[in-house]
Amino acid sequence: MNDWKIFHGNREPHQGISTLPNAPSWRQFKRQLDVNEKVLKAHWQDILNLVKEDSREYQRGKSFRVFSPPPGSDQVNPESPGKKGKIYQAYQELIDGVNAAIYLRRPLLVTGRPGSGKTSLAYAIAYELQLGPVLAWSITTRTILQNGLYNYDAIARLQNLQLLKLKQDLGQEAPQQLEENIGQYLQLGPVGTAFLPSYQPRVLLIDEIDKSDINLPNDLLNLFEEGGYSIPELERLQTQEVTVRTADFGLTTEIQGGQVQCNKFPIVVMTSNGERDFPAPFLRRCLRVRMPEPHDYEFLSQVVNAHFAKELGEKHWQEAQGTINQLIQDFVTKQQGKEVATDQLLSTIYLFSRQVQPDAMDQESLKQLLLKRLDSSVDQ
Q1: Strand order in the sheet with 252-256
Q2: What is the CATH number of domain 16-152+186-290?
Q3: CB 50 within 8 A of CB 117
Q4: Are 306 and 337 spatial neighbours (Cβ–Cβ below 8 Å)?
Q5: Quick one: where's region Disordered (predicted)?
Q6: pLDDT tens readout for residues 246-271
Q7: pTM, entire model
């Protein structure tokens, strides 16, 4: 039987997204705009050219690997009553959740503790499926949906209009001239860019959605259900086609009649630290998974290996194994019942694995500093 999974979480890039079948009938959108496949393909190549292999985002996706148990261990048995078996099952559920969301064209809501890898999952998806830069939208208590869709600088446009009036008599053609230039005052945000027609689906990260105000989850419902949105500032113009900037650096797109409609529903990853509950209508439209807590020694060893083995070089990596293994074991012990994050472990290993290391006294002090628990205001 062929593997149904498109995303495997193994850090091996491939073109599997091209085998994705059509969306279910209930996820095919009524409103469809005409798209030019040649134009979309050319624009897609421009998007892929934005990926820089030395960028932080690229390395983040490349280094994140969903837990892979060694052959022959009890971790390969989801029914295993042991702790390792449960860890494996949790990561299998995560992989299944990602793939189900891709097939069903549904947003994926990923809940987990800080530092568990929720955000990195989006970058891993983009890296493995070769879907270009992640479109990331970070949420605060003041965020509204329009912030993610687009930004229209009406003040700058008004100032330019006043300047033109001062310099010359505009005459009859002036309003038309201003209409034609409106695109330079409008830029699509990460959400707005993700729902543009595209040769392949984009990866949209909505980070820490649990920090939003009470209205944002419900405001997203129509976008998720209809797969598109309108820009009123462009709808009212006589000009049917307007060139605007996108969230991709240096790239533009054409907006027809103020309407944006996706032809490939983006892979939407929404992260939550579990600080609030969401309304039932919102949850009904999402697939929900929990990010497993990375407190298993073998899993953490894989994470550390992905981040440091190549950077340190084979010789120094082997020399540092004793120190690194002990730090991982200390971290696993400290994790029991306490809130500590994987990036705290990575920071500690970074300092302790240099060729010039802190002395023993400084090491103990640094461990206390870098591995403080996150669930208390008291320094412990």
Answers
A1: 150-152, 186-188, 241-245, 252-256, 259-261, 228-230
A2: 3.40.50.300
A3: no
A4: no
A5: 63-83
A6: 999 999 999 999 999 999 999 999 99
A7: 0.84
